[in-house]
Amino acid sequence: MKNIIILFLGIILIMQTGCSHINSKPEQDLKSIVDSLGNQAEQCFLNGKIDDLLEFYCDDIISMPNTHPMIKGKQNLKKMTETVLTSGMKFLALESTTIDAQADGSLVYEIGTFRQSILLPGSQEPINQTGKYITIWKLQPDGKLKIAVEIYNSDTPPTN
Q1: Residue 35 backbone phi and psi in degrees, to 5
Q2: How many CB atoms lie within 10 A of CB 124?
Q3: 98-146: per-residue pLDDT in tens?
Q4: Helix (H/G/I), strand (E/B), else coil: 66
Q5: Are 70 and 55 in contact (CB under 8 A)?
Q6: 66-109, pLDDT tens digit by residue?
Q7: DSSP character string of 78-120
Q8: CA angle 150, 156, 160 (to 5 degrees)
Q9: Neighbour-count burial of 67, counting CB atoms closer than 10 A to its CB (0-12 exposed, 13-18 middle, 19+ buried)
């Protein structure tokens, strides 16, 4: 019983250390960290590196994309991403900007904007969109932040 209590206290100490590490980062550092991680994930998407992209997500990811049903779990996100990337649409650009990032315990809340340019099959002119997003990053046992929840939608209907 004593060993279980010591193990439990050790786990609590590790969790508090990880959480206080995130909470002790200045807002600008958090903003830079999640902005950089997001940019890396975008490059994986634009380059069609789906498995590399999925490394940025928790196994139990909840994704709420614009004009699509909610997606739960990394494997379902993989299927949806493969479908999008093999549909004939060509993503010419995808850029996001972190506006704010705040930590609370083991979670980091990110608010931002994005712009993307997509060329649809048979189209000569790309569709350009701007939008906004919220991402909730979760601190992992190895110290990495991964996306636990994301929601994103466009500001207006797509335009040519």
Answers
A1: -65, -45
A2: 7
A3: 999 999 999 999 999 999 999 999 999 999 999 999 999 999 999 999 9
A4: coil
A5: no
A6: 988 999 999 999 999 999 999 999 999 999 999 999 999 999 99
A7: HHHHHHHHTTT-EEEEEEEEEEEEEEETTEEEEEEEEEEEEEP
A8: 115
A9: exposed
**Residue whose pair of structure tokens reads 């110290």 in the numeric block:** 143
Show the tokens assigned to 151. Answer: 């929601």
Residue 141 in tokens:
């046992």
Q: Which two tokens stand for residue 150?
A: 């994301």
112-117, long-range: CB < 8 A, 24+ apart = 112/35, 112/38, 114/152, 116/91, 117/91, 117/92, 117/93
Q: pTM for the complete prediction?
A: 0.80
CA distances (Å), 21 to each of 9, 26, 115, in order? Answer: 18, 10, 32
Beta strand residue intervals within the chain, DSSP E = 57-64, 71-72, 90-104, 107-119, 127-139, 145-154
